[in-house]
From TrEMBL:
It comes from the Eukaryota. This is Mitochondrial glycoprotein. SUPFAM superfamilies: Mitochondrial glycoprotein MAM33-like. Pfam families: MAM33 (PF02330). It comes from Stylosanthes scabra. InterPro entries: MAM33, MAM33_sf.
Amino acid sequence: MAMFAALRRASSAVIPLALRRTTAPSSSRTFHSVLSTGLLLSGEKATRTVVAPSLRFANGFATKTSADESLVQVLESEIKCAYDDNQSQHVEIPDDFPFEIEDNPGERTIQLKRQYQDETIKVQVDIPNVALDENEEDDDDAEKTSESSIPLVVSVFKGNGVCLEFGVTAFPDEIAIDSLSVKNLDESEDQLAYEGPEFTDLDENLQKAFHKYLEIRGIKPSTTNFLQEYMFSKDNKEYLGWLKNLKKFVEQ
């Protein structure tokens, strides 16, 4: 500390002296050259002060690089796990599957389409939802079971600008109709059309009749059970692609 104070005093004494000399007619040095002289005379301490910001920047860059490398390593590990899962979840489409499948990589939904007599039937299928249920009979050893489901939107067209649209949730071996409405394709989306009562409020016989209506058009447990497997496989494929895109971005 004493050495530092002595150097600082020497530096403060030299600079005013040099500045005073610049006022003499015989001196040709500029203010900047005098200031440089003062800094040089102040010794090693001034040099360290100049390079310190560069050192801090270098240390920050090294920390960022290290963090990015760690992230890439974790991503690579997760990619390997997702790849192994993807290899074990290959799903074959049954020969008697009644729909054509449109599956675009990068999208979370698939589209199904088929002709039934004079109707065109389109189905949008989303990725599965998995709900955990807990057995609350024993709080200490609660058993957890999972129930998967897939949401579907089934649209039946007859070529007259009107379609019948069902909101459906498909569970293993069970299909639940959540909503039912008649859609006029020419109507503006801003119009709030009457969509009928809740499906569960309909007469029980009417509910059964609509379930049969969907069944003969291909929306039945054998179809939706396959779709559950297919969508689980798609979900894993999309997850794998998402991880690869993340890794590619971090490495850039």
